[in-house]
């Protein structure tokens, strides 16, 4: 079992920045790919970014490319999402997820473990 706990969400003005953290426990994340997803009210849960834990490959959705950056700290068993130039349309609950495997996973159905989410609200 892998437990994931997100933190770092909050209220920020448009143009501001936030850094989300996802702390994992239970098992080392060296065998897991990680992803950040978000879900706005009335919308589906969408991939934001993903990282291949062992090789460092990353994916960022077009809507966040150039503004958000996913990274990981192997020693701390933590994944981060640096969010810059935030827009009101970035408002959502952000979820961290872990998928067993060494490639990048973009489909939420491929993820095995999920955190409870952290709210990000961007005001205009």
Mean pLDDT: 94
Radius of gyration over C-alpha positions, nearest whole angstrom? 13 Å
Order of helices and strands: EEEEEEEEEEE
Q: End-to-end span in angstroms?
A: 40 Å
Biggest sheet descriptor: 7 strands, mixed
In helices, the fraction of residues equals under 10%
Judging from the principal axes of the Cα atoms, what is the shape? globular
Number of helices: 0
> Which secondary-structure class do the elements indicate?
mainly beta
Oligomer: single chain
Mind explaining what this structure looks like?
This protein has 124 residues and is mainly beta. It contains no helices and eleven strands. The model has no long low-confidence stretch (mean pLDDT 94).
List keywords for this structure.
7-stranded mixed beta sheet; 11 strands; 124 residues; single chain
Question: Secondary structure elements and their pairing?
Answer:
Elements: E1 3-7, E2 10-13, E3 18-25, E4 32-39, E5 46-51, E6 58-60, E7 68-73, E8 78-83, E9 92-100, E10 113-114, E11 118-123
Summary?
The protein is mostly beta strands and 124 residues long. It has strands at 3-7, 10-13, 18-25, 32-39, 46-51, 58-60, 68-73, 78-83, 92-100, 113-114, 118-123. The radius of gyration is 13 Å and the shape is globular.
């Amino acid at each position: 079992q892998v437990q994931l706990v997100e933190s770092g969400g909050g209220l920020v003005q448009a143009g501001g920045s936030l850094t989300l953290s996802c702390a994992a426990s239970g098992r080392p994340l060296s065998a897991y790919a990680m992803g950040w997803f978000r879900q706005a009210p009335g919308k589906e849960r969408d991939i934001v970014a993903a990282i291949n834990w062992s090789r460092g490959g990353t994916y960022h959705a077009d809507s966040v490319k150039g503004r958000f950056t996913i990274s990981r700290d192997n020693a701390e068993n933590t994944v981060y999402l640096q969010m810059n130039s935030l827009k009101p349309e970035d408002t959502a609950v952000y979820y961290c997820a872990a998928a067993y495997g060494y490639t990048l996973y973009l489909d939420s159905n491929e993820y095995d473990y999920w955190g409870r989410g952290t709210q990000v609200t961007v005001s205009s």
